[in-house]
Amino acid sequence: MIGRIAGRLIHRGPDHVMIDVGGVGYIVQVSDRTLAAMPGPGEAVALYTDLLVREDLLQLYGFPTLLEREWHRLLMGVQGIGAKASMAILGTLGADGVGRAIALGDWTAIKAAPGVGPKIAQRVVNELKGKAPGIMAMGGTLAEATGAAPAQAGPVPSVSPPPPAPTVSAQAEALSALGNLGYAPADAAQAVARAAGEAPGADTPALIRAALKLLAPKG
């Protein structure tokens, strides 16, 4: 199993990159969002990878963070979602966006990905909503463990830059704090996701305050 590739970028294709690792060129499929963040040819690059194995195919898929790779694996477990659809969803929303959409039950956001219809989008939300809190909480741990961040590069005209969003660790810390206060994981995840969507760039304390207001009894 190839879990990570680090080397020198030698080619950029429309949906893939080629990375030279010790004289061997690995072709790695990536999303539009990841491709837009890749450095120029000849520069150092690293991607976490997932290997798709079929009778007639061995294909690597690359992700800038471990969190995004985990979402890819979960998405691939949904009936009707293949690697292409998963990469389209992640390319449209990013790891944080996928987490927010699923936690909020916002299947229309999932449907915005190319090639994903309403029935499949609803199935993604329904099947993964219960797993969203665990993945969101995992995000902070993965970010701290790796200290990794996506490579930076100039924007690609065909890819719209994503809106600012709270860091993965801020959302994970807020989710953990709400859990310690006794809130159910699903309710906490939904409140944190909504707070993150309403206040892009908010830090952990701000997310917790906003989420608590959303969770407060109405009356």
Automatic annotation (TrEMBL):
CDD domains of this UniProt entry? UBA_RuvA_C
Q: How does it assemble?
A: Homotetramer. Forms an RuvA(8)-RuvB(12)-Holliday junction (HJ) complex. HJ DNA is sandwiched between 2 RuvA tetramers; dsDNA enters through RuvA and exits via RuvB. An RuvB hexamer assembles on each DNA strand where it exits the tetramer. Each RuvB hexamer is contacted by two RuvA subunits (via domain III) on 2 adjacent RuvB subunits; this complex drives branch migration. In the full resolvosome a probable DNA-RuvA(4)-RuvB(12)-RuvC(2) complex forms which resolves the HJ.
Protein name per Swiss-Prot or TrEMBL:
Holliday junction branch migration complex subunit RuvA
**Domain III: annotated segments:** 168-219
- Specify where it is mainly localized: cytoplasm
What InterPro entries would the database entry show?
A: DNA_helicase_Holl-junc_RuvA_I, Hlx-hairpin-Hlx_DNA-bd_motif, NA-bd_OB-fold, RuvA, RuvA_2-like, RuvA_C, RuvA_C_sf
Q: What is known of its domains?
A: Has three domains with a flexible linker between the domains II and III and assumes an 'L' shape. Domain III is highly mobile and contacts RuvB.
Q: What does this protein do?
A: The RuvA-RuvB-RuvC complex processes Holliday junction (HJ) DNA during genetic recombination and DNA repair, while the RuvA-RuvB complex plays an important role in the rescue of blocked DNA replication forks via replication fork reversal (RFR). RuvA specifically binds to HJ cruciform DNA, conferring on it an open structure. The RuvB hexamer acts as an ATP-dependent pump, pulling dsDNA into and through the RuvAB complex. HJ branch migration allows RuvC to scan DNA until it finds its consensus sequence, where it cleaves and resolves the cruciform DNA.
Report the sequence similarity comment from the record: Belongs to the RuvA family.
Where does the record place the Helix-hairpin-helix DNA-binding motif class domain? Answer: 73-92, 108-127
* HAMAP family according to UniProt: DNA_HJ_migration_RuvA (MF_00031)
